[in-house]
Specification:
single chain; mainly alpha; two-stranded parallel sheet; DNA-binding
DNA sequence: CTAGTGACTGTTT
DNA sequence: AAAACAGCCACTA
């Protein structure tokens, strides 16, 4: 018995849907930045909105939300003491993404670069 | 309606 | 190198 959960008790806006559609395309073992997702969703300079949209995601979803990191190649903090960030890092490492000693993902190697 | 906030980012101090 | 600033705009109260 599986059930879909509604986001924020409301229907997702078109804006969020566009963002989610791009996030869904990020391949396993690669990462994308918030700004990159915004550009690909045809919303340049709306990086913050991408973060907001991901924050609004239901706890259960099929999106590879963990593949979205900031422009520095680091996992953005959530203000929850680091629990979510740790979970995100574990998910990335499980699919082969390596972090350096400073907790940074070398974007030269892992940034998603679609043709 | 206004004001505050935020999983951001590029530029300027 | 690090911090501050300035844009950006959906969402909430």
């Amino acid at each position: 018995m599986r059930q879909e959960r509604i986001v924020s008790m409301t229907l997702p806006s078109d804006t969020y849907q566009r963002i989610y559609a791009v996030v869904a395309q990020v391949p396993r073992g690669k990462v994308a930045t918030y700004g990159q997702i915004a550009r690909m969703a045809d919303m340049p300079r709306h990086a913050r909105l991408v973060g907001y949209a991901l924050h609004a995601l239901a706890t259960v979803n099929r999106l590879p939300w963990h593949r979205v990191v900031n422009a520095q190649g680091m996992i953005s903090e959530r203000g929850d003491g680091g629990a979510a960030a740790q979970k995100q890092r574990r998910r990335l490492e499980r699919e082969g993404v390596r972090f350096n000693a400073r907790g940074v993902i070398p974007l030269k190697q892992y940034l998603w670069q679609p043709d």
